[in-house]
Design brief:
single chain; alpha/beta; Rossmann fold; N-(1-d-carboxylethyl)-l-norvaline Dehydrogenase, domain 2; 2 domains; 8-stranded mixed beta sheet; 4-stranded mixed beta sheet; 12 helices; 12 strands; 46% helix; 20% strand
Length: 304
């Protein structure tokens, strides 16, 4: 690898994409973003990515942004942060611009993203990770950190380089040899927090302040963990309920990504989260009534 800054592309223009772009740009990296959301593209082109600190201070960070993957040739590292229902398109876009020796890292929510990317790009060019960071998109191109968290990366030949890049951006990073454990560990957390906050219109912290919501959180987490166990997946924690509650506490001010989607009338990732748990439960013979109900209720928010 040369001493020049790595070619780094962030796919997406939502809350998490903007958070990573701002921090990497702040660290002096040359960052490019690839997106399709018109309002986000226009805002970032005009003012850069604006990071709003907890005390209200704002800083704008320059990035290169485009909706045309052909302008992003020979990308060495790509960070995929689009919604799960946009992954197929992201894979096609990356097939145009990811270098032959490049790697696309997915930190997305839900199941199936890694498989979709690998099916188009090849498994050797795709890496899996999860993060418990929280971010709120205040307006297109304007983001605030809603909760610090950890980035856990699965095994890949370039993972050491990726870990160093993330650390240079001020992120906490660890590497795990078990990507399935990572994926299901995050899935349990998403299933227990995201749909309930979206349905009730509350922050993560408020889940713990409302006894019925907290009980529902616990039931969803236990159910999802039971499905993982039936699939032979060893979660990266021993107590799913305590882990989910700790995440909700650490990201108390965060409006979950699903709540943000529902609030602006956008599609959600519920199919790749609770829907995926229901499907896996059917395959393993584990009942999933809580996740099934949450899945159907969130879908009912958009479907007549």
């Amino acid at each position: 690898m040369s001493s020049s800054p790595p070619s780094f592309l962030i796919v997406g223009t939502g809350a998490m994409a903007c958070l990573f772009a701002a921090r990497f740009s702040r660290a002096g990296m040359a960052v490019a973003m690839l997106g399709s959301w018109r309002a986000g593209l226009e805002a970032i082109r005009k003012a850069g990515v604006v990071l709003v600190e907890a005390d209200g201070r704002e800083s704008a960070y320059p990035v290169t942004i485009t909706d045309d993957p052909s302008t992003c040739a020979e990308v060495r590292f790509a960070l995929v942060l689009v919604k799960s229902w946009q992954t197929e398109r992201a894979a096609r876009q990356l097939s145009e611009c990811l270098a032959s020796d490049g790697v696309a890292l997915t930190l997305q929510n839900g199941l199936g993203n890694y498989e979709q990317l690998s099916g188009v790009l090849g498994a050797e060019r795709v890496a899996l990770g999860v993060t418990t960071l929280g971010a709120n998109l205040i307006a297109p191109g304007r983001v605030c950190l809603a909760g610090e968290g950890l980035i856990t990366l699965g095994s890949h030949p370039l993972m050491g380089v990726l870990a160093a890049i993330f650390r240079s951006g001020g992120f906490l990073v660890e590497i795990s040899p078990d990507p399935n454990s990572l994926l299901w560990g995050k899935l349990v957390i998403n299933a227990a927090i995201n749909p309930i906050t979206a349905l009730l219109g509350i922050t993560n912290g408020e889940l713990l302040q409302r006894a019925p919501a907290r009980a529902l959180l616990a039931a969803a987490a236990r159910e999802a963990a039971a499905v993982a166990a039936a699939k032979g997946v060893r979660l990266p924690y021993t107590d799913p309920v305590a882990t989910v509650e700790n995440i909700a506490r650490r990201t108390a001010k965060n409006r979950s990504s699903m709540l943000q989607d529902v609030s602006r009338g956008a599609p959600t990732e519920i199919d790749a989260i609770c829907g995926a748990i229901v499907e896996a439960g059917e395959q393993t013979g584990v009942p999933t009534p809580v996740n099934r109900t949450l899945w159907q209720l969130v879908k009912a928010l958009r479907q007549p």
